[in-house]
Amino acid sequence: MAGDIDTMTVNQLRGWLKDHGVTGTSGMRKEELVKAAVKTMRSDQGTASPNIATGKKSTGTKSTASSAAIHKTAGDTGKKTAHAPASPRAEAGSGRAAETAWESGNDDVIDLLLAHHEQIKQLFGQVARAHGEQKQSAWRQLKDLLVLHESIEQQLVHPLAARRVPDGEDVIESRLQEEQQATEDLSRLYEMGIDHPQFDDGLIELRDAVVEHAELEEDEEFGYLRENVPAEQLIGLATAARAAERIASRPHADMPASGPQNGSPAAIADRVRGALRDALK
Question: With pLDDT > 90 as the criterion, what percentage of the chain qualifies?
Answer without folding.
Answer: 44
